[in-house]
Amino acid sequence: MVRKKYSWKHVLLVAGLAILFLGNITFYIWYQSESIRLGYKIHDLENQLEKRQEEIKLLEAKKEALLSPDRIDRLAKDELNLQEVKPEQIIFEGEIEK
User: pLDDT at residue 98 above 70?
Assistant: First the structure.
């Protein structure tokens, strides 16, 4: 049986094509895995955003409760011992006292 000899040109061409093919496969696999990783990261960030929005809603509700006029009035009377304004304590602008 006689073996056919390949020239260096053919060997280099086949090796070059093999390297290009492996490079393309490697790039494709990296691209797909990177896309999947970014998808997971986006999903995690969206979940964090939803949690933060829930926290904001809760904090705004708490702020509204703390700033309610009824609560402020109660605190002023009970804790600070403030009293309602009496009519003789009201001074109108432009009024001159003697």
Answer: no
Q: pTM for this one?
A: 0.58
pLDDT digits (tens, 9 = 90+) for 49-69: 999 999 999 999 999 999 999
Q: How many residues comprise the chain?
A: 98
Alpha-helical segments (H) within 67-84:
69-78
Quote the pLDDT of residue 86. 87
Sort 34 into a burial class: Cβ within 10 Å, 0-12 / 13-18 / 19+.
exposed
Give the count of beta carbons closer than 10 Å to the beta carbon of residue 76.
Answer: 13
CB 51 within 8 A of CB 45: no
Contact yes or no for 82/76 (Cβ under 8 A):
yes
Question: 42 vs 1, 35, 37, 46, 47, CA distance in Å?
Answer: 62, 10, 9, 6, 9
